[in-house]
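Checklist before submission:
- one chain only
- standard amino acids only
- sequence pasted in full

Submission:
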Amino acid sequence: MTRVTANATIVEPTTAPESAIPESAIHGMDFAGGAALFDYSAEAEMFSPMSRKARRQPLGYRRFARAADAIRFAIEELPPQLLVGTYLEVAEHRYEGHQIRRLYESTGYPLDRAAAASA
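Returned file contents:
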């Protein structure tokens, strides 16, 4: 909202939405449209649960220069059972495992997909 006073023009901040992607997109109703707003080139952080059965921790925490690389890693390299508890953080927005998969399957995903991951 903008107000004009005698000495200045005041621009008041509006309440920004929690996510740049519409809520309906996050829950799958219109994800293809919402994924088009996703910045695959942004830096990303991935958090994954620790596996109690594995001797080594498969991930825990990892940083990626591009969100597209993080998404590829989550879908193509993480064991599928770990994707359930994994989340991706991009520009202070969090995406859970099913949302990561939808971003990977989106037509806006910029990288080539592995044949086995999409089967």
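Reviewer check: Residues 44 and 64 are 5 Å apart (CA to CA).
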